[in-house]
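Re: Re: ligand-bound prediction request (bumping)

Still looking for help on this. To restate: I need the protein modeled with zinc ion bound, output as structure tokens. Inputs repeated here so nobody has to scroll up.
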Amino acid sequence: MVKPGLKNPEVLQNKSLYQKGVNYGFANTKAYVLYRDGHICQYCKGKTKDKRVEVHHIIYRNNGGSDEESNLTTLCKTDHDALHKGKIALKGGKKRGQLSHATQMNSIRVQLLRALPAAEETFGFITKEHRQLIGLPKEHYFDAAAIASQGNPVNFRTTTVLHKKSISDGDYQQTKGVRSEQRIPTGKIHGFRKFDKVKYSGNEYFIKGRMSTGYAILMNISGNKIDLKPIPKFDRMERLSARKSWIISQKIIASS
Ligand SMILES: [Zn+2]
Ligand SMILES: [Zn+2]
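Reply:
Sorry for the wait, this slipped through. Here it is.
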């Protein structure tokens, strides 16, 4: 999360903002940005005469744009619409500060060990030894079994494994959250949306892309495009479930 702090000396001019800090909350940041920009569109400086102003992420959030004021600007509705339609463009912006994957995993590891005193730490090379001892192929779920059994024989009571994957914020937003600019494309094409789970010629897939001409690009749960000939049409497809904030698929465990 963004830390409260003074990032901009202009904030000193406004006592209430000073007391709460520039990044007190996103609503506050938005208000601050409007105040900073004098409620004037930073693209046209008022030329369009459109009094409706909105706060815009210079680098879009789904491209990793930050919620900090340095990535936000004030635009009139006319220019904001034009920008989102690709008719005009802005430069600059700031990306979200992100921990590297390794740093993030290390932080999670430390917190888990602290939160769960009974937890024991293990390592990839031990898991690999255990998995090979049991004679299981290299799969994440077999690694999990090897960790749990510590190399003792495993008796599987199921032949199916569920694969659940969350959809990134950029691809999916459930509500018009405080960070959104309230522009969520939710339209259906031929009754289908991106990430809907569908059945097509006996197999289950997810919608990756849609063409208004009635054709679909399908993917597996890993997001890989499935090349199908002929190109699948929506009218030959059954919608199994609507997209959620995660997608789920089933597969049969490879028998060894
Ligand atoms: Zn404008
Ligand atoms: Zn915008």
